[in-house]
Amino acid sequence: IRMFLFSTVVGQVAFTLKSKFHNPIGLQMVENVPFCHALSHIVVSRQGYGRESLSTLMVMFGLASVIVGVVFFLLGKFRLGRLVYYFPTHVLVGCIGGIGLYIGKTAIEVTMNAPMTLSSISSSRNLPLLGVVILFEVILRCLEQVTKRTDGTPKYALLSPIYFCSITPVFYMALLLFRVDWDHVMEAGYFFPSLQDDNGSDGGSIIWNEHLLDMWRIIDFSVVSWQAIIDSIPTLVALVLFSLIHVPINIPAFALSTNTEAEMNTELVAHGYSNMIAGCLGGLQNYMAYTQSVLYDRSGGMGKSSGLTVAAITALLFFIGPTIASYIPRCMAGTLLLHVGIDLFLEGVYDSYGKFDNLEYSGIWLITIVMTLYGMDAAMIAGIITAISTFVAQNMTYVNPVRGSMSASTLRSSQLNRHIKAREILDDPYIGRSRILVIQLQGHLFFGNMAHLTESIHQIMSKKLGTMAEPMCVILDFSLVLGIDSSAAQTMSKLKNVMQKQFNVQLSIFVSGSDEGFPCAFDLSKELSATIIPDRKDSIPPDETTELLANEGITRVSSQTFMESLAFSGSHVCDSLDMALVYAENALIDSEDPSLLEYDESGNQFSGLRKDSSPSEEREAALHHIENLCLGNVDKNNAEMLFSRFERQVYTRGECLWKQGSPSDSFKLLVRGSLEAVLENEAGTSETILSGNSIGELGLVEGVTRMSSVHCTSQEAILYSLSRDAYEDLIRSSPHVARIVDLICVRYLSARVQHVSNRIFETRCLPI
Fold first, then answer.
1. Do residues 155 and 148 lie in contact, with contact meaning Cβ atoms separated by under 8 Å?
2. Residue 653: DSSP 8-state
3. What is the pLDDT of residues 432-485, one digit of tens each?
């Protein structure tokens, strides 16, 4: 018991001082007990029984701890901790479930003081022992349920530890109340056996006795069998490798359970110090215990002072523990183990349901069952099998998940018709689009490339941190991502916090690339943002109109409701890259002059026309759109002269303006309503056209046939049309006026070339 407690104290102090976790609990590595037995057999075969063999064995134990510590320290020192991130989340969750069942089984065996079998559980001697533990557990579960807050979180963090501490006095009071004979209670197995009975006395006081320092007093290097140590090398190697299995599981699992981001290299260094110190003092191996750390965390344990207090209490038990152990009822230990085991099993199997796809969830059950039946080694093999199966099934295509990154300085969104001052802000090299960083991801995102992905993003952001190009807004584009597993999805949900806190990013925008959300079973849209910005043409009321740059499948959403809901901070989700850039541009404008967005809302983005608008109001709106399409580089008299050649046309819902392939005989300006352009030969590729835009200008100038079919989608659409005859007459009589149409063509073509979807995707350009 003292060897266990000594190693635990050393580990607790080391982890409290060196770990990045706020609530680690150190523990002697009890999983290595079988290796300790094997080392004992090697020593006995060489030296037999006696003081000499004990001396050799203690040296072996210390040497094993030192070797384990050196390996841990080197892994952390050379920053090889990232290797452990290749443990997928569902494997760790399966291990949590398996550990829960194992602890529950241990609770039953501790309570009965016998191996768990059907006959032992059903025996008349053990049923009362188990009944007491189950009763205490049911009462605790009921207390936890009735004290929960409305959001499901516990109201009293110290409820569980106080309850466990009260079991012993409550049990004693029950014995007194019912006048139960003490000898009968001891014979029935309700208490642990007394260790003092073996020698007849404790050899001194409760704090200090002659056996206190036996684990060090027994060491005598003059009688150590070095041949036995050489014989034990294979066992020592196996012990080291087995020790390495637990830490890469415990640390990420504890980080997952506490919703924190672990620094694996720091934790490995801490394990190196704790084991080297314990080994040099003849102690056994130790590690940060997952189960005890979770219990400590859920009990509200936090901070170095609290951790050192735990170490001090454990050190006190080093002196008095063997003496008081026999006064603690088995039901206290059984209830504690059973409660933790049930919690871990529910966390691993029940709480994870629906958060993983079917293959990953099946792997969780496989690992849980294998660990329960065959132990940790077999569970690791099962975990490797499930990880490989997941890897193959998801069919990762690309090695590098980051396709590239670039500033938005040369990118243009579909929000073409902005106020001139807003354009100046966006074009400014210091406060404009250069403050927007676009990072495009690709392929399959899964547990195997998450470490590389986060490292790449950290490198990209670190290069810009503190420079003039430090981004205010970061757009992460998932449009080319084919699939995301649950491990990657949970990593991305943590990445948004890292970008905002570590790199001072004011606004993070995640582009799903589809109106169906991200390609994963995990609800990543909900995790990344409570604000999801739609980009679907069916989400726009027919009578709400905005500017549109013709481009495949991109809807321009700028309705009154949408504008009022904008909050340019935190993180948000968009369906398309174009909508993300519109949102980011609005954020830049809002940071400099919010009134410009209000101007756009009433002036540029909306025509302001009512159904009963007068012809003069329609004329003013049309002239405003013409000037805006030319970036203001047009004389107002020339614009009025051009507009005098237009003819008013009205279309109703469903009417066709022209068919794809028909002659281009007119150029039309939409002043109210909405249209839809469809490419007939491309599986229904379409775009919505809203007021403030012109259509058909390229066909009129170039003389090519119509490249798409256009029909009316609003209840009524009002357009002004310039016929080919009128255009050709302008060329002859007033070429400087006809040049306005050329300027509009150049403006649209320039915007198409610079549009975000063409620059990033290098594909898709819907001609009109």
1. yes
2. T
3. 999 999 999 988 887 777 888 888 898 999 888 888 878 999 999 998 888 888
Q: How far apart are CA 486 and CA 728, in angstroms?
A: 61
330: tokens are 């088995």
Mean pLDDT of the chain: 80
Residue 151: how many other CB atoms lie within 10 Å: 5
pLDDT of res. 418:
75
Q: Is the pLDDT of residue 201 over 60?
A: no
8 A C-beta contact, residue 226 and residue 232: no
Q: Are 329 and 171 in contact (CB under 8 A)?
A: yes
What pLDDT is stored for residue 72 in this prediction? 92
Phi, psi (rounded to 5 degrees) for 763: -150, 175
Entry pTM? 0.52
| Closest to 144 measured CA to CA, from 135, 134, 153 | 153
CA distance 285 to 39: 14
> Which residue is listed with tokens 């039901």?
331
State the alpha helices, DSSP H only, in 447-594.
450-464, 486-502, 524-528, 560-564, 577-592
Closest CA to 726 of 648, 669, 657, 647: 647
Name residues whose C-beta falls within 8 Å of residue 699's C-beta, 6 or more positions apart in sequence.
664, 667, 705, 706, 707
d(CA 180, CA 166): 19
Which two three-digit tokens encode residue 738?
């006809």
Burial class (CB in 10 A: 0-12, 13-18, 19+), 231: middle
In angstroms, rounded to a whole number, what is the distance separating the alpha carbons of residues 734 and 124? 110
Indicate the helix (H) or strand (E) that contains 649.
strand 647-652
The pLDDT tens digits of the residues spanning 669-682 come to: 998 888 999 987 76
| Torsional class of 204: left (φ above 0), alpha (ψ -120 to 50), beta (otherwise) | left
Mean pLDDT, residues 607-618: 73
C-alpha separations of 120 from 133, 270, 590 in Å: 16, 42, 72
Instruction: Give the β-pairing of 694-695 and 674-678.
Output: unpaired
